[in-house]
Amino acid sequence: MWRYVLFVLFLLAVVPLAPKLMENWRAGQSEPEQVAEVALGEDADTGSRTFEIPMARNGQYVTEARLNGRDVTMLVDTGASAIALPEGIARDIGIFLQPSDYKKPVKTANGIAKAAAATLRELRLGPIRLKDVDVMVLEDGLLTTPLLGMSALGRLERFHISNDTLILEQ
Which residue windows are transmembrane per the record (predicted)? Predict the structure, then answer.
């Protein structure tokens, strides 16, 4: 009998705390500043490489990538035909352009702009490795966050969303 009484007392103490505990747990699952950094690794059977990116609270997928050996926070954008980089970040990762290189018209959220085509030597997303990936470089001020577009995503075996997680497979 005392076991039941103790169990009921325990429930009465814990139940009022449950909503707050759940709220804290859910908030920790998708912080806007949180970026995906943990890779699942290689599948022993298939040799495939998988990388998971959790959805941020704002509904976007943001991840850390290594571009030419440098860490860069990127926003996944399946609507972007290529990786898009601001000029400053391109310089930081070893892509140096001349003003005359900016001749390709591209659509941005602010209208048409001129971009320069370039090639990224290496892209890493956890265990996923891509070499010689096409990128578009925009002049500083036109793009605030680098975009991980289809020039990289299209080279993967597949990518899909499951339980608010973007899963990339090579």
Answer: none
Sole residue written with tokens 């998708």: 30
Second CATH level (architecture) for the domain 31-169 = Beta Barrel (2.40)
Cβ-based burial of 168 (10 A; exposed 0-12, middle 13-18, buried ≥19):
buried
Domain ranges (residues) in the chain: 1-29, 31-169
Q: Which residues contact 133 (CB under 8 A, 6 or more apart)?
A: 83, 119, 120, 123, 151, 152, 155
pLDDT in tens, 116-143: 999 999 999 999 999 999 999 999 889 9
Separation between Cα atoms, residue 140 and residue 151, nearest integer Å: 21
pLDDT for the residue 109: 75
